[in-house]
């Protein structure tokens, strides 16, 4: 299973990040929700202090490009194998930085990937 960091995690059931954390957990993946507001999703605390996390396979983004620059260093420091830019999070600047560090990037929807079995 793939250790996944959900950046932009929310305890609001109407948010896609909320749905993604639940679906990732149901699919058996280790999930670390990271966001700006404290809360809980799928029984997991939302981390707000940008924790150090080892062996990250995937970062899935739910933060708009205008709010991503403050996350760049953190995202790259986790050295994920891939970053999924969910719809509305596409960001050429971050994608370029990731590729320079040999991090794979995808423009995809985590929920769709999980539902069709190609996560």
UniProtKB/TrEMBL annotation:
Pfam families, per database record: CoA_binding_2
InterPro entries: CoA-bd, NAD(P)-bd_dom_sf
Coiled-coil region list: none
Domain of life: Bacteria
Signal peptide: none
Residue span, CoA-binding domain: 2-114
Designated name of the protein: CoA-binding protein
